[in-house]
Amino acid sequence: MPSTTAAQSRRQNPGSQSALRHRNQQRIVACLLNGPSTQAELARQTGLSTATVSNIVKTMVDGGLAATEPTTSSGRRALNVRLTGKGTVAVGVDFGRRHLRVVVASLGHRVLAEESVGLPLGHRAQEGIETAVALVDRLLAQSGLPRSAAVGAGVGIPGPIDRRTGTVAQGAILPEWVGINILQRLEDALKMPVFVDNDANLGALAEVTWGPHGRTDNLLFLKIGSGVGAGLIINGSPFYGNVGITGELGHATIHEHGLVCRCGNRGCLETVASTTTMLELLSRGEDPPRNAEDIVRNALAGDSATLRVVDDAGAAVGRALGNVANLINPEVIVVGGPLADLGDLLLDPIRRGLIRHAVPVVGESTRLTMSSLGDRAEALGATALVFQHTGIRAT
Asked: Which stretches make up the HTH marR-type domain (predicted)?
C-alpha cells in the first residue's frame, strides 16, 4: 500500500543514541520475523556490525523479547536467535477534539492494553502529546513490555495532513494544531518511529484489517463526529490523492445558502450533520445533551427532537454519499464515530438519501453498514499502519 504523509515526509535524523539503538533493534526484529537466525546472519542481513548485533540481542534476551540457543553454522559454533512472541507490538494513538485513545496490539490482532481519557476542549498539541506519552508508557508497563517492544506508533489526527510537509493542514478539528509538524513532535516525545494519518483514513484501514471487510477492495469509511470525514480504500489500497487531503466530505456543499462553516464556505455538510451541530440544535430543550453519548441515549429513548435532528443529519449525509458513490462506486460504505450505537436510526435516513441521489444501479449495489469497531476503529487502524510501514505482516 502507498505510504502515508508521515512515512513519506519523515526526516532521516539519526537523533539520540537511544533512538539509533531502537531503530537498529527494529531492523533485527524485522529479520527475525522471518524465522530464527544466527547473530552472524543478522549482521549480514542488517548491515550492522557483529558487536552491535551481539549487544542488541543481549538486551532483547534480558528484556524477554528474544531467546538464544547454541547451534552450528558452516561448521562453527554459533548462537541462534529467535523472537519469544513478546518482541513485536504496535502502539495506536487516536487524538480527538475531546479525547485520547491509546491501544497496544500484537501481531495476532490482539489488543494487549487499551485506555481512553478525556482532553480539554481547545487543548494544544503539547498538552495532548504529553498525555499520550504518559498513557503509552503506562499501557506498555501494564502489559509487562519495555518501550523497545514497540516497533512504532501510528497516530490519528482529526483533520487533513499535508503529505508535502507532514504538518496539520487548515480545516482540522483541532485548530490549535494547524501548521505543527506533528510527526517530528511525536517522534521526539515518544522516542520511536511514528506514522501519522487522518483519523478517517485509519478508520478505513481498520475496517479492512481488524474488521469484517478484509476482502473488500473498494470501501468508504465515514466518520461522523465533531467533524465529518471519509477514508477511502480504492482497488485495495488507501487513497491519498495529490497532497494527502482526501475524503473531506464534511465540506461538501449541501445548502448553498446555509450556515457559514469553519472552513469559510457556506452550507457544508458539517454544518448540518456533525455532532457539534446536533448538540447546538438540541441545546434549546429543557435537558440539553452535553455530548454524543447523550444524543445516542436520547434517540434510543425515543426523544422526538433528537430523532428529528438525527433523521435530518442522516438524510444530508446520504445525499453527500450519493454523489461520492456515483464517482467511485464503492462496494461498502461503513459508518463509524460516536453515533455508531444509533444503528438503523441513523442508517435508515442515510440509506434513503443515498438511494435518492445515487444512480439507481450504484445506490442499489452499494452496501451500507455501521462499523462493528465502534469508537476504537481509528486507534486500531493506527496499529495496522505501524505494521504496514515497518514491513511487518500481521498474522
From this structure: 32-77
CATH class entry, domain 89-205+377-389: alpha beta
DSSP conformational letter for 260: B
CATH code for the part of the protein at 5-83: 1.10.10.10
- Please tell me the total number of residues recorded for the chain in this structure: 395
Angle at 28 between CA 26 and CA 29, to 5 degrees: 65
pLDDT tens digits, 141-160:
998 888 878 888 999 988 88
What distance, in Å, lies between the first and last C-alpha atoms of the chain? 17
Residue ranges of the chain that CATH labels 3.30.420.40: 89-205+377-389, 214-372
* Residue burial 38-66, b: 16+ Cβ < 10 Å; e: rest: bbbbbbebbebeeebbbebbeebeebebb
Query: What global pTM score does this model have?
Result: 0.79
- 252 touches 323 (CB < 8 A): yes
CA-to-CA distance for 146 and 226, rounded, in angstroms?
35
pLDDT tens-digit series, residues 89-127 = 899 999 988 889 999 998 777 899 999 999 888 788 889
